[in-house]
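Changelog-adjacent note: as of this version, every example in the card shows the full chain rather than a window. The one below runs 104 residues end to end.
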Amino acid sequence: MARKPSIPTRLVFQALLDAPSRETYGFELAEATGLPSGTIYPILRRLEDQGVVESRWELVETGSQRRRRRYYWLTGEGRRAAREATVEKRNALRLLAPGWSGSL
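Full-length structure tokens:
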């Protein structure tokens, strides 16, 4: 039997399910979940290795700077896995995380 996802992984799943757009970049996910980058990026990498999250790089211009930003989204299987992982604790997860209101 597969292990249940950790609370931080469930927070990432819930944030991706609740994301206001299909693709979300890592820093937005960190703000929405309240997780530090040292926690969120390894989770995203692991979920991508498992095939439940996909990502792409995009060049973004902010003022006079150009930098790359990585966008993440759930695959079809990822949506199923995320719903399954969060269904019992959805309200509690939303209480633990700051959410999307301040990050967009």
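Structural remarks: Strands lie at 24-25, 53-62, 65-74.
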